[in-house]
Design a protein that fits this description.
Layout (H helix, E strand, L loop, with lengths): L15 E4 L2 E4 L20 E10 L15 E9 L7 E10 L9 E9 L10 E10 L11 E16 L2 E13 L15 E10 L7 E8 L7 E9 L4 E10 L2 H4 L3 E10 L1
Antiparallel strand pairs: 1-2, 3-4, 3-14, 4-5, 5-6, 6-7, 7-8, 8-9, 9-10, 10-11, 11-12, 12-13, 13-14
């Protein structure tokens, strides 16, 4: 069972992170909790995502008494290919966090892929895409938004046993972004890394409940371990409740609690 999100039944983050004391936003494709997924929005089905990332603490000993900005994202995604075996989506996000980045709030994303079992029986799902395509790439700007991340993902549902139909879906991939924007704590480029996730609909409890854990590596401001649960209130409406643990808090800021409302229409 897929979650309703920016592509299937899920959504995720348009997170805000700190680089050199300023916030950087990430535009969102169809995702798990934080990383992209192989899910893709069906043809001519629009997805509205309303995501909030709320800081759970101050910076502590990094910046005593100071709280990093919360991040708010309104995104719209639509499926654009009328084919069964090859799907594609495009999307745009409006991201705000109360900083100078609000001067360039628009970000774009796109993805193309094939579902599981398309190439041959039991073949994994495949997807390639890009996100974080912001509108400010000026070299001398303190608020550059051109993360320009491109990625590839594979995903496979693991068969279960007995009365358990599936152990969930495992996904793995790799990304590369703009090496002038995605930096490590030492200021050197840290613009690539692994993408990993597990997700599963918990039919034993309810087919409306979905769980996921994902990880984005790279040692930059976007690197994080995230986990969450989603509840489907209807065929087209669901909400994710999640938590993001940032790998490099001196770059990304304090951890965030996220709520993500996902609505598909028509």
């Amino acid at each position: 069972m897929k979650r309703i999100s920016k592509s299937g039944w899920m959504a995720v983050v348009a997170g805000g992170t700190l680089i050199g004391g300023v916030v950087v936003a990430m535009a969102t494709p169809s995702t798990q909790v934080w990383i992209p997924s192989t899910d893709i929005q069906p043809f001519n089905v629009w997805h509205l995502g309303l995501d909030n990332y709320l800081r759970t603490s101050s910076q502590g000993d990094i910046t005593p008494g100071q709280r990093d900005p919360n991040v708010y994202d309104a995104g719209l995604t639509v499926g654009v290919l009328p084919f069964e075996k090859v799907n594609a989506e495009v999307g745009v996000d409006y991201i705000a966090n109360g900083t100078g980045y609000d001067d360039y709030p628009v970000y774009f994303n796109a993805k193309v892929g094939i579902p599981e079992g398309t190439l041959v029986t039991n073949a994994p799902a495949l997807a390639v895409g890009g996100y974080g395509f912001g509108t400010n790439g000026k070299k001398d700007s303190a608020v550059r938004t051109d993360q320009d991340i491109v990625y590839g993902m594979v995903a496979k549902t693991i068969p279960g046993f007995g009365s358990v139909p599936s152990l969930g879906r495992l996904s793995a991939g790799y990304y590369v972004g703009n090496d002038k924007v995605l930096l490590g704590t030492d200021g050197a480029k840290a613009n690539d890394g692994v993408l990993l996730s597990w997700d599963r609909t918990m039919n034993e409890i309810s087919d409306k409940l979905w769980l996921a854990v994902d990880y984005m590596g790279g040692g930059n401001s976007l690197s994080a371990l995230s986990f969450g649960a989603a509840w489907s209130f209807s065929k087209n409406v669901s909400v994710i409740f999640g938590y993001d643990i940032y790998e490099e808090k001196s770059l990304a800021g304090a951890n965030t609690f996220t709520t993500q409302v996902d609505i598909n229409f028509p």
